[in-house]
Structure prediction request, 115 residues.
Amino acid sequence: MRKRVQAQLQFMHIEEQENENKGRVHILPQSLIEQAEANDGRLQFDAESYQCFKAEHTTAHARPNVEQIRRPREGAARKEETFIVPPGTDTRSDAERAGTWRGGGRGGGRGGRGG
Prediction:
């Protein structure tokens, strides 16, 4: 934000006072008074030159010149994969099939409320 304000002051021909606080802009009062007196109490802003300056120096919305490659994340779903389980497919683990798995939930086992 400070750089934007400094650029705008530059295009109004107003000088800035150096200070130790880098986040604050101090305008030289004499410079402001001189510009106002020279233009019948109005400040002149060169908007056309400022727009050109912004177009050259702004990088916020610039498109990168490097080809962007989309890489899949580890474990993320891919478009070509389907996650539909066909009918009749047994999705239980080996322990569940063997009957040694003691899962939570109601009806026996550890965990859950009460008991």
